[in-house]
Amino acid sequence: MIRFKDVSKDYRTKDGALTAVSDVNIEIKDGEIFGIVGYSGAGKSTLVRMLDGLEAPTQGEIDINGINMAKLKGYRLRKQRQKIGMIFQHFNLLWSRTVIDNIALPLEIANVPKTQRIARAEELIKLVGLEGREHSYPSELSGGQKQRVGIARALANEPTILISDEATSALDPDTTNEVLDLLLKINKQMNLTILLITHEMHAIAKICQQVAVMDSGRVVESGSVFDVFRHP
Ligand code: ADP
Ligand code: ADP
């Protein structure tokens, strides 16, 4: 379970302090697909960076299965961060590496031996439907294919949580739906918890069970997608 408890984050700026996140309480159960929706500047990325241990909250606590991210350092922080896979709007692939080498990169960093790396990357290529593109470079792929590489790479270390930070925002509607279907499949097959960060309501409505709506750093509404998006 992921728990944000009374979380606030202030940034120091030249004209004082800016409150990016204010008093956020969110609980995400294991295996759930949880959406966080809000316009640009709502505080979504700040929440993600805190969950990934890249920044500490000014107040409150974020924990994953009872472990407070802000208290971890060094080896234990790296181990905990391996449990979180991330995918991004602009894919963040390495352009000089092939598909299979991009996917195997996190395993290389984790010092997994080469034969094991390749075997794992090949499994992931099948899972995301990129058979035959192993030796292509990212520049030879469509947007949807690039994001499939991003998803496979995010899963390389067998995380328990996948964070999608606007991962479909650069894709056309059909490709967006394909990527969302893939996330749904992965969620079911691997019992992976997915945090879907987006400004696109329809993406949330399509695959999420629970949603929190953010505005100006606050959660202004939350609950099941059915309840929150229901029109009276
Ligand atoms: P979102 O991801 O929803 O677009 P962000 O979390 O990026 O929102 O930003 C929330 C607010 O915090 C915005 O006003 C943004 O300008 C501000 N902010 C984000 N990161 C920083 C930072 N490192 N320093 C100062 N202000 C920041
Ligand atoms: P996104 O909306 O995709 O998160 P942003 O353009 O908001 O992208 O932020 C990109 C980077 O710039 C982030 O690392 C964030 O911390 C930083 N940032 C955002 N707003 C500010 C700000 N007002 N001052 C300083 N850094 C900021």
UniProtKB/TrEMBL annotation:
Name one molecular function that GO assigns to this entry: ATP binding
Q: Which terms are listed as keywords in the entry?
A: Amino-acid transport, ATP-binding, Cell membrane, Membrane, Nucleotide-binding, Translocase, Transport
State whether keyword Cell wall biogenesis/degradation applies: no
**Signal peptide position in this chain?**
none
Q: Which residues form the ABC transporter domain?
A: 2-232
This protein's name = Methionine ABC transporter ATP-binding protein
Upper lineage: Bacteria, Bacillati, Bacillota, Bacilli, Lactobacillales
- Which stretch of the intact protein is present? 1 to 232 of 344
